[in-house]
Amino acid sequence: MSAHINEITTKRILLVEADHELSSQIQLNLQSLNLDVIPCSNLSEAKHHVNTQDFDLVLMERQLPDGEGLLLCMQLLEQQKEIPIMFLTNKGSEADIVLGLESGADDYLVKPFSVLELRARVKVLLRRFTKRTPTNDNYLQFADMYINTDTREVITNDQTINLTATEFDLLCYLAQHPQKVFSRMQLLEAVWGYSYSGYEHTVNSHINRLRAKLSHYFNEDIVKTVWGVGYKFTPPQIQAA
């Protein structure tokens, strides 16, 4: 068994899929990676599971018999539960993908998809969000802004900025390379772990959400667009009151 598979041996996945045949296929493939897959087929069951159990990843369809999967995504954001979410859905227009990502999803895979691609993305998400034991000594500081890479907190003026897991990873990566410009494809590879052409809007959506949150704490845009190239982190100089 490969080292990559060993890394995710004990992980638990909530699979929310109304198509029972597809759900069974996904379960079999992920169980072959020694993952514990908990299936359900509607939104109410999914909400019950996330409220009563701990999961390392949620895979879900958007169009469920009793509602829109985006509702669960937004619920997890409101509860500040750092559980990565990947949508597996037929809703594949650019507008749908952007909406899914801006609702808080970390990844978005359009049906029909390759089982190999699904397995690869699941591995990447689980590795990215594996919690580490905090040491409280790994952090970045820019003026009054602190980014703790162990506790995964961003603090400025004694206020904690609430970010999703992907928003934190994106900010942290940019902040580790101040003023360096990264293309969308470079950020996909570094933060998401893949660089498939056509998924650049994933970066755009998360950058937009990240900027919106940071704007409440800083008088300046610290994640800047370099037109025609990509994005860069500019350390803050003046804090907002």
Can you put this structure into words, describing what you see?
It is a single chain. By secondary structure, this protein is an alpha/beta fold. The chain has two domains: about 5-130, 3-Layer(aba) Sandwich (Rossmann fold), CATH 3.40.50; about 140-235, Winged helix-like DNA-binding domain superfamily/Winged helix DNA-binding domain (Arc Repressor Mutant, subunit A, Orthogonal Bundle), CATH 1.10.10. Helices cover about 40% and strands about 20% of the residues. It has helices spanning about 5, 20-30, 45-50, 70-80, 95-100, 115-130, 165-175, 185-190, 200-215, and strands spanning about 10-15, 35-40, 55-60, 65, 65-70, 85-90, 105-110, 140, 145-150, 155, 160, 225, 230-235. The strands form four sheets. Strands 2-1-3-6-7 form a five-stranded parallel beta sheet, with helices on both faces. It has a four-stranded antiparallel beta sheet with strand order 8-9-10-11, with helices on one face. Strands 4-5 form a two-stranded antiparallel sheet. Helix 7 (about 165-175) packs across helix 8, helix 7 crosses helix 9 (about 200-215) and helix 8 (about 185-190) packs across helix 9 (about 200-215). The longest helix has 15 residues, at about 200-215. The model is unreliable at about 1-10 and about 130-135 (pLDDT under 50). GO terms for molecular function: phosphorelay response regulator activity; transcription cis-regulatory region binding. Pfam families: Response_reg, Trans_reg_C. Keywords: DNA-binding, Phosphoprotein, Transcription, Transcription regulation, Two-component regulatory system. It comes from Parashewanella curva. This protein is a positive regulator for the phosphate regulon. Transcription of this operon is positively regulated by PhoB and PhoR when phosphate is limited.
